[in-house]
Amino acid sequence: MCVPCNYGIYVIKSQIKLNAANMKEEQYLLLCEKYFNGECSPGELSLIALYQKKHGLNNIIFEKQNQAEVREELFNRIQDSIVQNVPKRIWFHSSAFKLAASLAAALIVFFYLTNGPLKHEVKVKLAVAKVIKNKIDDVPPGSANAILTLADGKNIKLDDQQNGLLSQQKHVAISKSGMGIILTAKNIGANENDLTLNKITIPRAGKYNITLSDGTKIWLNSSSSLSFPTVFSGKERKVRLTGEAYFEVAKNKKMPFIIDVNGKQEVEVLGTHFNITAFEDDKDITTALIEGSVRVNAKTKQVLIKPGEMVVNNLQNNLSIRKADLDEIMAWKNDMFIFSNENIASVMKKISRWYDVEVSYKGDMTNINIDGNYSRSKGLKSLLKNIKLLDKVDFQIKERRITVIAK
Question: 152 CB contacts (<8 Å, ≥6 apart)?
Answer without folding.
Answer: none
